[in-house]
Specification:
The protein is mainly alpha-helical. It is built from 10 helices and 4 strands; from the N terminus they run H-E-H-H-H-H-E-E-E-H-H-H-H-H. The chain has a two-stranded antiparallel ribbon. Strands 2-3 form a two-stranded antiparallel ribbon.
């Protein structure tokens, strides 16, 4: 990022770190990305535009971000049409910190990260499933009850059916306007801060994928 960067700081460890950051490959998750790009553009065709505009907190956030919000959605749409994986160039600041460049990268925060997958495939294990349930429980539970893993798991179990309802809305490709309305009116969506809505939806999508893959037999 600066011409006067001290190149003596670039040792083997630093170089390996930088190469790792540059070599990381990502993909747009087609189910999540197609649903949420439709959500941004959704204007209820049945005459309840004002109602659903008011419920659509994600759309409000994207519009409030101006060029950054528009750039994110256009980048997502471009990758949906293109397919395949991509890499992000990175920059180093004066302290040697690495920053990804572009609108769509994993350091973009919880609003951006749910749109992408790692292009690297790994086995999904019972330990990963347990951790996912714990993370979901921490997100959907009451603050006073999710201070322990026991409380987080209880919060997950209490919301398990609702999470699968949301996941199925994202997975289905039919009757999209009706599914967008159902999504925006869903009690779990209405109870979630719009900033955390992409994270909630992606968790719901992933859990539903696992549930369906095992025909509900998570044992």
């Amino acid at each position: 990022a600066g011409a006067n960067y001290d190149t003596d700081l670039v040792d083997r460890d630093f170089t390996n770190m930088l190469n790792h950051a540059m070599d990381s490959e990502w993909e747009v998750d087609s189910d999540f990305a197609s649903f949420f790009t439709d959500l941004v553009h959704f204007r209820d065709p049945r005459g309840n535009v004002a109602k659903f505009d008011d419920l659509n907190g994600f759309r409000k956030i994207i519009l409030a971000r101006g060029d950054a919000g528009a750039g994110l959605i256009q980048t997502v749409k471009w990758h949906l049409q293109r397919g395949g994986s991509f890499r992000n160039p990175v920059q180093i600041d004066g302290r040697g910190r690495v920053y990804s460049v572009g609108y769509l990268h994993p350091a973009g925060g919880e609003l951006v990260r749910p749109f992408i997958n790692s292009a690297q495939r790994v086995a999904f294990t019972p330990e990963i499933l347990y951790e996912m349930k714990i993370q979901i429980g921490a997100l959907v539970g009451e603050a006073s009850t999710v201070l322990t893993n026991t409380g987080r798991m209880a919060a997950f179990e209490a919301n398990e059916k609702a999470l699968r309802e949301l996941g199925e809305l994202l997975l289905s490709k039919t009757q999209r306007p009706a599914r967008l309305r159902s999504f925006l009116e869903h009690p779990l969506v209405q109870a979630t801060d719009p900033d955390h809505l992409p994270k909630l939806a992606r968790f719901a999508l992933e859990y539903t994928r696992v549930y369906n893959h095992t025909n509900g037999n998570l044992n």
